[in-house]
Specification:
Elements (H helix, E strand, L loop, with lengths): L3 H26 L2 H17 L9 H20 L5 H12 L2 H20 L2 H11 L5 H8 L3 H21 L9 H10 L7
Helix pairs in contact: 1-2, 1-3, 1-5, 2-3, 5-8, 6-8, 7-8
């Protein structure tokens, strides 16, 4: 049995990294539920080896373990992938991990904030960003005005901007174009 200090350490690590790791795994699996399962396996592995955890290297370890378990999951499940996706996975294996983790961290922050949006606002935002529908198309689909769509998108973007500022991930002067590109970059997160 492990002491409370180990439990506390694991809890801190889990709270800090779990959303980022789910987003990272989901970039491979395209399924939030499967990604959560993979990340859970990673944390079980950390718990089994908690006494040997180097807190200074935990971020790199968690991302590497998540990547490896995600790829193993793909192989185990024989998930349908095309050649482009396989090349993308191979490219990620060669990509600078630290830089990749920074991008994933930003995407995870956005992912979390989008999940906290009110249901109507979230739906409108995802239709705009994931489905790439115009305001007019969303308004027609939902039977509401384009002004309502515009307002809901603005609410979502303000909340995302504020969240990024809180995490010091973006300065207060972040341009709308940069914010939009960050928001669009999480399209690969699949169904939220």
């Amino acid at each position: 049995m492990y002491s409370n200090s180990y439990e506390s350490l694991l809890e801190q690590i889990f709270k800090k990294y779990q959303p980022m790791l789910v987003a990272y795994s989901n970039s491979y699996l395209h399924s939030v539920e499967d990604a959560k399962g993979v990340v859970q396996e990673v944390f079980i592995g950390v718990w089994r080896n908690i006494q040997n955890v180097d807190k200074n290297k935990i971020k790199a370890y968690l991302f590497t373990a998540t990547r490896n378990r995600s790829i193993s999951f793909i192989k185990r499940q024989r998930l349908p992938t095309n050649d482009v996706e396989l090349q993308d996975i191979e490219h990620r294996l060669k990509y600078d991990g630290e830089q990749d983790m920074d991008v994933i961290e930003l995407q995870a922050i956005i992912f979390d904030e989008v999940n906290r949006l009110p249901p109507k606002c979230k739906k409108i935002f995802l239709l705009s960003r994931q489905e790439q529908l115009s305001y007019k198309e969303i308004a027609a689909q939902l039977g509401i005005s384009t002004k309502t769509i515009e307002n809901q998108i603005n609410i979502a973007l303000k909340r995302i901007r504020k969240c990024l500022e809180v995490y010091n991930a973006a300065p207060q002067t972040t341009s709308m174009e940069v914010l939009l590109s960050l928001a669009l970059s999480f399209y690969w997160l699949g169904d939220l």
